[in-house]
Design a protein that fits this description.
Elements (H helix, E strand, L loop, with lengths): L1 E5 L8 E5 L9 E11 L1 H7 L6 H5 L12 E9 L11 E5 L11 E5 L4 E3 L6 H5 L2 H13 L7 E5 L4 H12 L3 E6 L4 H6 L4 E4 L12 E6 L6 H7 E9 L4 H10 L7 E3 L7 H12 L7 E6 L3 H9 L6 E5 L2
Bound molecules: NADP nicotinamide-adenine-dinucleotide phosphate.
């Protein structure tokens, strides 16, 4: 089968397309023919070993699992002898898993209990592939923050994969949502349901007198001390993209007298999360935001775009 391989850490150019053996499903696994995947922060961070501790988990000198890709949309083509949850022909979308990877290939073998679910009828593979990463991450954090109706929620980095999902999910939960983005994304963020949009290139967010029940920092660009200024006394801050240096800075900053709750760490999705997102897609309560759709052969471009920090929503990779 055809796959995109990263056999060394480095720039997007380390990736090449090659023929590799088809995976064989174990007894409780399913074999999925992938139609579309997405290229996102997990992939470019693994490929470039950024942050450094990627090497501790994925291999000190080169990636142990050269086929990247943490999400997929595809069709079951075979089931292991003891796999009963899905059948041949089922269309699924979700995570290959952060540890297993393998989504940037024509086929992947996955445990049938993985974090995926049937694709809603009428949804394309391309659209479905743009759901798991951003929405799965946003759902994990918004649930932890226990967002409720009427709360004032600030989403910083509102046009990224996680941000564009967080805007929609927080709105769906009944929150009054403020999105922060640059000028060219203002209309998009508004169209996703944000009640207020702040253009950070024109306005000083900190000059606003508004304070929020939840500040969700999705892109690691707003310093923690500024999150503290924006959150209410007993509000919540989600540090969705905190790197080691930022974590240290946060620990030194303290909470400046605020009794705010801080939520961070790695987001994990479950099959139930993917079913829930499928229901929201079917009800048209949420929609994927897609920056570009590229064939697998152009995966180097997809990596470069994702790493640029400027992509709007998701870069989808089609297997062809
Ligand atoms: N904790 C976890 O488990 C977890 C899970 C997923 C992702 N993450 C992390 O979350 C981060 C975001 O991921 P993502 O895929 O959503 O990112 P992304 O899609 O690459 O984000 C791109 C967006 O960031 C915005 N942006 C860039 N600079 C900005 C700034 N200074 N202020 C405000 N917005 C800015 C851009 O909008 P404008 O052009 O409008 O500025 C762009 O649309 C990544 O670092 C990733 O590693 C963590």
């Amino acid at each position: 089968m055809k796959a995109a391989l990263a056999t060394a850490y480095g720039s997007p150019d380390v990736i090449r397309i090659a023929q590799v053996p088809m995976p064989t499903p174990k007894p409780t696994e399913i074999l999925v023919r992938i139609h579309a995947s997405a290229e996102n922060a997990a992939d470019w961070r693994l490929r470039s070993a950024n942050p450094w501790f990627v090497r501790l988990v994925f291999g000190p000198f080169k990636p142990r699992r050269p086929i990247l890709g943490v999400v997929f949309a595809g069709e079951v083509v075979r089931t292991g002898v003891a796999a009963t949850k899905y059948k041949k022909g089922d269309k699924l979308f979700g995570w290959t898993s952060l540890m297993k990877l393998g989504g940037h290939a024509e086929y992947v073998a996955l445990p049938e209990t993985g974090a995926f679910a049937p694709i809603p009828a009428a949804m394309s593979y391309t659209d479905a592939a743009a759901i798991p990463f951003g929405f799965g991450t946003a759902l994990h954090f918004l649930r932890k923050a226990k967002v409720t109706k009427g709360q004032r929620v600030l989403i910083y980095g509102a046009s990224g994969a996680v941000g564009s999902a967080a805007i929609q999910l927080a709105g769906h939960l009944g929150a009054e949502v403020t999105g922060v983005c640059s000028t060219h994304n203002v209309e998009l963020v508004r169209s996703m349901g944000a009640t207020h949009v702040v253009d950070y290139t024109k306005e000083d967010l900190l000059a606003h007198r508004d304070r929020y029940d939840l500040v969700f920092e999705t892109v690691g660009k707003l310093p923690f001390k500024d999150c503290l200024k924006l959150v209410k006394q007993q509000g919540t801050i989600i540090t969705g993209s905190e790197m080691p240096a930022q974590m240290l800075a946060r620990l030194f900053t303290g909470k400046g007298g605020k009794q705010a709750k801080v939520i961070g760490g790695t987001a994990l999705s479950t099959p139930a999360d993917m079913q829930y997102l499928a229901q929201l897609c079917a009800a048209q309560a949420i929609r994927p935001v897609i920056d570009q759709v590229l064939p697998l052969e152009r995966i180097v471009e997809a990596h470069a775009r994702a790493e640029s920090g400027r992509k709007v929503g998701n870069v989808v990779v089609e297997m062809g």
